[in-house]
Amino acid sequence: MRTMIKIAQPGAALEREVTGESLYWSRRQFIKAAGAGLALYGTGLAGCDDGPAAEAAPGRKLLTLEAKPSALSSAEEPTDYQDATSYNNFYEFGTDKEDPARYSSELITNPWSVEFGGEVGKPGKVGLEDLIDRSALEERIYRLRCVEAWSMVIPWIGVPLAGVLKSREPTSKAKYVAFRTLHDPEQMPGQRRPILRWPYREGLRIDEAMHPLTILAIGMYGRELPNQNGAPLRLVVPWKYGYKSIKSIVAIDLVEEQPPTSWNTSAPREYGFYSNVNPEVSHPRWSQAKERRIGEFRRRETLPFNGYGEQVASMYAGMDLKKYH
Ligand SMILES: Nc1nc2c(c(=O)[nH]1)N[C@H]1C(S)=C(S)[C@@H](COP(=O)(O)O)O[C@H]1N2
Ligand SMILES: [Mo]
Questions:
Q1: Hey, which of 243, 248, 265 would you mutate to test ligand 1's pocket, going by the most ligand atoms within 8 Å of its Cβ?
Q2: What's the structural domain count of the chain?
Q3: In this structure, is the dihedral angle defined by the CA atoms of residues 48, 27, 74 and 280, taken in order, positive or negative?
Q4: Residue 58 pLDDT
Q5: What residue's CA is closest to ligand 1, atom 10?
Q6: Cβ-contact 181, 250 below 8 angstroms
Q7: β-pairing, 290-293 with 150-160?
Q8: Which CATH number fits the domain that encloses residue 292?
Q9: By residue range, what is the domain housing residue 293?
Q10: Which end of the chain has fewer CB atoms at under 10 Å, N or C?
Q11: Of 59-63, 211-215, 218-222, 274-278, which range is least confident?
Q12: How many angstroms separate the CA atoms of 7 and 86, rounded?
């Protein structure tokens, strides 16, 4: 596995030291002390516009987002913001972990819309501002476990996918949900080469998509999403390997048959449709038993369903999870 290389961004570190990070973390301490659930997230940063995310995408201000803390959050300490925004997988901008932060800053994320199709009563394009109710935003601190055996803990900001899907009125034939990322080789240089079959595609079974843990995120660490993390809208499915959490979504189709997904199409033996985190099912080229939390040196045991088994295991009762990996 690669070791992490930190890229110094001119001017970034200084700004971060002066305001953002320290502010964010002191607020976290406050939230902890007050007991999560009592503190209203976002108020402490009101009026402050150079917070932690300000340096992540040069030339773009990442606005503060107000979000309610969620009872579904993990109690773990979030990964360092700098790590979460400089060690990314977003192959549309290159295959190195540093490429997304380097090459995604010009991506135009406003205006943005998502096109709904397939088995829905209300198909068509919906502007992001109409799709996500900003007064309903929640902060969900989730572990993200990459198939490459590293993990992070990220305070996402978003809404349950279920409500968004229901607003499009799925028909009784809607058995799966298919997601698609923007396809624009001009803006996404990685798409000029056939690393994957573009656009990036992912899919969920309808019960997985409707599960309360599954969210659509528009922010993290109290701010809008940096481009490298999937701005302006990404999926987060915490009990599955990271590649299921598709970034920069432009289309969502409700469909009757299991939809093709990018990783499963490119290497079906290595990446199944379900992709539930499973320490007992090795990737053909490496074990999935352990993981390294970014920022730590010791390796941790990987937990079944990434530690969310109590909430999600019943959806797979009776399924052979080695076959349906
Ligand atoms: N469109 C798109 N979405 C994507 C990817 C990608 O290459 N393209 N990489 C996936 C992988 S492999 C992981 S581990 C997560 C990483 O999310 P993060 O960079 O916010 O940590 O994004 C996922 N979503
Ligand atoms: Mo990943």
A1: 243
A2: 1
A3: positive
A4: 55
A5: 243
A6: yes
A7: parallel
A8: 3.90.420.10
A9: 15-316
A10: N
A11: 59-63
A12: 7
